[in-house]
Amino acid sequence: MDLRFVAPTLRQLDKLGGELLACGLFEDERPWKGVAGLLDWRTAARLSRHAEGGALTGQLGEVVLVPGRPRLPFEKILLFGLGPKADFDETAYAAVIERMLGTLSDLKVRMAVVERPGRHCGQLDAVRAVDLLMQACTSYPVQDVWTLVEAVHDQKRIAQHLAEERRRKRIR
Asked: Which of 7, 35, 59, 147 can pair with 113 through a Cys bridge, CB separation 3.0 to 4.6 Å?
């Protein structure tokens, strides 16, 4: 899988557009933060109304598909439940990543814009999270390109780490 990056702002996401944007949300975080919060704001609280009606809970394992257009430059928005914020750890992250990869593969989506689960709360180091993502990808070769929503400083750290990993593999 090839990774690209975009900053976590509506302006930068608007420049990309595309078929699908995927992000996560915690079941006990209101208002939502990260990309889910940006999407809720842009859609005039449409996601919050889904949550009030019980169609969107944020429970671990939940997957909800909502249309993106016309207010967003993406055809589809996939929302993945992250569970309670206090319980979010490497194990929960790995479960959500598996769910994301499986869902995107089932939908035959080869290129997606994805917010790393739990990115905005900082409970999992960005480099470690990408390592876990790349390990999980070995079971899902259908995924071609993910554009990760990351802050600029984490983009640089991840890119440097991936370059070092490629170099190590060439040496072996």
From this structure: 147
